[in-house]
Amino acid sequence: MTDVLPTSLAELLAARLGPDGWLTADDARRRYGEDDSRRWALPAAVALPRDTDDVVAIVQACRKYGVPIVARGAGTGTTGAAVPFSGGVVVSMARMNRILALRPEDRCAVVQPGVLNGDLQQAL
After folding, report:
1. Within its chain, how far is the Cα of 38 from the centroid?
2. For the whole model, what pTM was predicted?
3. Could you name the domain of life of the organism this protein comes from (predicted)?
4. What is the greatest pairwise CA distance in the chain?
């Protein structure tokens, strides 16, 4: 896989996510190329969805064009699970960071995937 995405895929996701949600600049891609492991790979692009509909659109578009994706939370994992496939797309959940419900009586929290553990602890 090269780090050049199909033009139609890049245009589709750039239009859907906007300039703050579809990152292709070298410095932005480098920031998302690693986690706290020693592994590293340069993604072709970084997608920052705002909601579930954006995630579905990203997954469907990348699947259509055969482009691999990797989901990323805060990038603090130590196993390399958030390290992209070279030439793939990182789907960063950073903008999906809302706490939707706290139910202490059930010991349950409903959160979006970009919520940081520290933020959840403060909310509790």
Report:
1. 19
2. 0.84
3. Bacteria
4. 50
